[in-house]
Amino acid sequence: MVTTKSSPRRKTIKHVYQLLYVEPRVWRRLWVPDNLTLAGLDQVIQTAMGWTNSHLHEFEIDGQRYGTSLDEYPIERPAKLDTDHRLSDVLGKNVKTFIYTFDFGDDWRHIVTVEQILKPDPEINTWPQCLEGESACPPEDVGGMRPANPS
């Protein structure tokens, strides 16, 4: 179940999520309501990418880090809980891209590009929707796809 805080849906945000360091290119274009919490957005991304959400994640947005329950992080913890912040709270006028990282061992990093923020429209669904995308995600727990670090 996708988590939203109790407030009226104001806008719909159109994003493109692209998994970094992977060829062929893996990406999804999504619509999500702007009152979706970052925890809810994590669930949407996991579903769209075909993963099981069995690892920790983090959002890096406009210089701030947001993540799951702070007690779960074995390393430096994010400053803010993703359950406490909605997209409408964190996407300022100047935020056009942000980073979503899933599974710190495999380090699946996504660049998220905000393509449009749409005004409320009764013809647009109020729930998250995957509009299009390409390629299947790599399986979880394969060690990641980061570029090799030459010695």
UniProtKB/TrEMBL annotation:
Domain Plasmid pRiA4b Orf3-like: from-to ranges: 18-145
Highest taxon of the lineage: Bacteria
One Pfam entry name: PRiA4_ORF3
Descriptive protein name: Plasmid pRiA4b ORF-3 family protein
Species name: Thiomonas arsenitoxydans (strain DSM 22701 / CIP 110005 / 3As)
